[in-house]
Structure formats: C-alpha cells, structure tokens
Amino acid sequence: MAMIEASGLTKTYRSKSGPVHALTGFDLSVPEGTVKALLGPNGAGKTTVVKMLTTLEVPDAGTAHINGIDVVGDPQATRRTIGVSGQYAAVDENLTGFENLDMIGRLYHLGARVSRERARELIDVFDLSAAGDRPVKGFSGGMRRRIDLAGALVTNPRVLFLDEPTTGLDPRSRLALWDIITSLVAGGTTVLLTTQYLEEADRLADDIAVIDGGRVIAEGTADHLKAQVGGHRLVVALVDEARAAQALEVLRRHGDAEPTLGSDGRQVEVAVTDGPTALQRTLADLGAAGIELHDAGMRRPTLDDVFLQLTGRKAVDDDDPDTGSVPTGKTSKKEARR
User: Fold this and answer.
1) 94-112: per-residue pLDDT in tens?
2) For residue 42, is pLDDT > 80?
3) Cβ contacts of residue 161 below 8 Å, gap of 6+?
C-alpha cells in the first residue's frame, strides 16, 4: 500500500526575473513502512514538494494523498496523520525540553495527563532524560535536533517528513539520529526524507528519487542507481599539482569519459569499464611520464557519481526557488495553510 502518493504536481512562482517553475509534473509513491529519499540540486523542488505534502503549499495542478486522504481537500485530516521536522529546530528556547513536548501535546488536544506522559516517554526514547528539564537554549545542536524530531512524534504519526534532518550536526550526532530514524521505520513509520548528504540517503533510504527541473528524472534503490552508472572509478593523487594537465591527458586515454580534477588540484579521476587493466596501463604511462603519485586505486560508483551523471551538478542544499517569489494564481496565504 502506498502511504504517500503524488501525481502531476505543478507549482509556479513569480519572481522579479519572471516565472519560476518549481514543479513541472512531479510524481511520487512511497510504500508504507519505508524510507524514500529525495535528492536534487539547488532549486530542484525538494522543499516545495515537502511543503505541498504537509499542507503548507497548494499545488497549481495535480493531486496528493497521505494514507488515502486528499491533502488539498482535507488538510486538517492530513495533519492528524503526519509529523514534520524541518531544516531548523522549531522549539521554544525559553522552555525546557519536556515543556516543549508537553505544549505540542496540548496543542493537539491530547489532554494534560496524556501530554505529560507522552512528553516523558519521548524524553527517555531520545536519551534526553538528564537534560529534559533544562531550557532548550542550553542544548547542543544535536540535542535540539532530537527534541525537534521528538516533537514531530508526539501524536505517533504514521507518516514522517524530514527536511534536511541532520544539516549542521557533527558526525556523532548524525549517526545517533540515523539510528532513531531506523528504529522508527522498523516500527512501521513511513518516512519521506530530503537530504544534502548522499551517505545519508545511501544509509537510510529503501528507495531514492532524483529530482531535477521540478520532476523525478530517476528512481530506484541506491544499488540500482549506481548500477546505471556502471564500471569503476580510477583515482590518482598527484604529488605535484603542476603535473595535473599531463595526468588528465593520460587518464583521458584510458578512461570512458572526460576525467575530472578535484578541488585540491591533485586528485584526478575518470570512469573506466575494466578497472584493473585500466589502472595498470595508467600507472605505466604516468610512470613513463615521470609523474609522481601519492596514491592510486579504484572505487565503485557512489551516489555522488549517479547524481553528477544525471544532473550535471553536485548535490547541494535545496532552498525555495526564490525567497522573494510569490506563487502564481490566486491562492492566498490563508488558503495555503488550511
């Protein structure tokens, strides 16, 4: 059963430079109890998708359903089914962690006793017992993200939207949050995740949708997408960056695509079909040319390779098309928040 379904979603914004087509026929299906990751370059429409599916934006055309509920037709019922954790922790810094969660429960009309019980339960689940009664303004970034995610789970939602959930976190906090998300999915929660970390999508997602130009251009498991790229990547690290042009020429002879030079000016990389043979020949030619190396080797394609091949760009953070943009049509802010 598909817990999240979207078909033909379109959205156009007005900006000073003209219309911005944020979504141009976006389709999506997320089965119950799975994680779907949305990847896309800056301005691809990831955040716009999340806003539409969480009732914060109304599409110009198309349909969207959460657990069979029409998102546009019945936004209140939709909100009772979902939880949302955005890019920035939506917490009151002057309240304690417990008080933030208790407040959310009361806003959902859970009642005083149930709200308090649920708040304490989530404080324990998210390993915040020692800090739960302290003001949030004294929390670390990782603790704020955990209390924000806990707030999205107060009502035990069947569907959870995570928009860049680990942005800005240190590696330890990121791993801890990944473990929490994994346990939620194991318990049957359906998750739609947008992320700028390809490793995060590789680790958490059952399925990945790559977005560009406001629509899905590729979809599948991480292994399936990597298989589409195929082959190996031959990588050499130069001792002298002044020899980069010569190294690029050598790798160009043995590669299946145009080689690339890393931002450090020393790492040269190219896609190859027969990795071991290409590596042997490349090392021989580099040695004959007197080009010294720090390191050389092969690697399998990554999601970054997939992303670059599909979009021609590196994966970067997604924002709204234009902070000053206004949706076309006659939809008011009040209607968008119904």
Assistant:
1) 999 999 999 999 998 999 9
2) no
3) 50, 53, 54, 82, 83, 84, 85, 191, 192
Kindly report the CATH number assigned to the domain that includes residue 113: 3.40.50.300
Confidence of residue 245 (pLDDT cuts 50, 70, 90): very high
Count of residues making up the chain: 338
Task: Identify the helix (H) or strand (E) that includes residue 245.
Answer: helix 244-254
The answer to the question of residue 41 being in a domain is yes
- C-alpha 97/C-alpha 229 separation (Å) is 45
Q: Can you give the pTM of this predicted structure?
A: 0.77
Residues 120 and 238 in one domain: no
| pLDDT tens column, 43-79 | 788 889 999 999 999 999 999 999 999 999 999 999 9
Q: How many domains does the chain have?
A: 2
**What pLDDT, on the 0 to 100 scale, is given for residue 235?**
95
Measured in degrees and rounded to the nearest 5, phi and psi for residue 264 equal -80, -5
Residue 308: inside a domain, yes or no?
no
Number of CB atoms found within 10 A of residue 276's CB = 11
What is the number of other CB atoms lying within 10 angstroms of the CB of residue 109? Answer: 9
Share of the chain above pLDDT 90, in %: 54
Phi, psi of 70 (to 5 degrees): -70, 115
Residue 110 lies in a domain: yes
For residues 43 and 138, state if they share a domain. Answer: yes
Q: How far is CA 88 from CA 23, 148, 159, 163, 215, in A?
A: 23, 9, 19, 9, 25
Alpha helices, H only, 255-302: 275-288
- Does 74 map to a domain? yes
